Amino acid sequence: MTPWRAPSLEDLIGIEHSKLGFFQELRQTIEALKDANAQSSQRRREIAAILDGITDIMMVLAPDLRILSVNHVFRQTFPQPAPEGQFCYKIFRNQDTPCPECPASKSFATGDICRETAIFKIGGKNIQYEMVASPIRHPDDPESHILVFKRDVTREKEYQAKFYQAEKMATIGMLATGVAHEVNNPLTAIFGFAEGLRRRLPALREKVDPGVMEDVEDYVSTILLECRRCQDIVTTLLTFSRHKTVSFSPVSLNAVVEDTLKLLRSHLKQRNQAKITVRVDLCESLPKVLGDEHQIKQVMLNLLVNAMDAIAGPGRIVITTFQSVPESVCLSVEDSGYGIRAEHMDKLFEPFFTTKRAGKGIGIGLSTCMSIVQKHHGDITVKSQPGQGAVFTVKFPVNPDKTS
């Protein structure tokens, strides 16, 4: 055994130097940790600033579509006390099953970035969102999550639809003006000569065989009647296509229905070869609404054409006007067509969405209808089952103080 000896001065100095080195290394480590923490805090602040600058709704979803976290825009749009832990479809749709167009479900199933567009009713208004779902994977977490962005594209889609609609109506207006002039010139001559024949009929009555005279009077009356009908059709066509400043005045929904049916009379006759019956049930005491007659006729025209297109063979169309409550009147178009599938119900009024085959439409008719009706402070509701037809009901307020 080595005998104990007292540490020398050199030993004590060496121990102090080693302690000093340890504490210096410890201090350097602490300083490095402080710098790293400061950089991490700065990075977190930068990321938070970036996230706060995003104006889209953001949320992170679990595989069962429960919300794990949301950004400030989500909380502003949906002032839920605690959205975390709730199902997204419960908040967005107030339903108990996932949405059929859900991009998050598709992203979970495929592992890819998925995009979808859908309309949600928020605060009593139809808002169209473009949704992007992107998988989030972490090496330490075997369970994947989905980051969902929802961007409001309502105004953008409305502007696109208005542009196409304005372009289409401008073209129709130019054609209608040309057709009106070309038709009115010979029509005026036919009407004038027929009127001249009618004035000369009394002088011929005693000189012509009574049977022949009766036929001539009938022919002249028919010519005059059909001339007046042609004039009404041309006038109605011009009211549909003429671009004018929107001005609200009392409008009769019954007159709108009758004028639209006049315009589509020939089309209805062609479709009647397939045995399509049109029944009109108009409320005689229906109060007038304050609105733009041209635009309301455009709504009626779109709904009626869609109803005819939805019927492939024999069927029926029922047009009804009624007063549901004292404050509003309704216009309903019901068809016995193929109906609307459940996954398409939320997209009906989305601009450029259509189930018609190519060449039959570009999908701005119903979106234009919704825009016009909302401008009149009204609403459009749809009831349909696949294979059982559809009912479109347009509601307009009667109180002029609520319409501007």
UniProtKB/TrEMBL annotation:
GO molecular function: ATP binding; phosphorelay sensor kinase activity
UniProt keywords, alphabetically: ATP-binding, Kinase, Nucleotide-binding, Phosphoprotein, Transferase, Two-component regulatory system
Top-level taxon: Bacteria
Annotated Histidine kinase domain residues: 178-400
Signal peptide range in chain numbering: none
PROSITE patterns: HIS_KIN (PS50109)
EC class (word): transferase
PANTHER family: PEROXIDE STRESS-ACTIVATED HISTIDINE KINASE MAK3 (PTHR43065:SF10), SENSOR HISTIDINE KINASE (PTHR43065)
Protein name stated in the entry: histidine kinase
Species this protein is from: Solidesulfovibrio carbinoliphilus subsp. oakridgensis
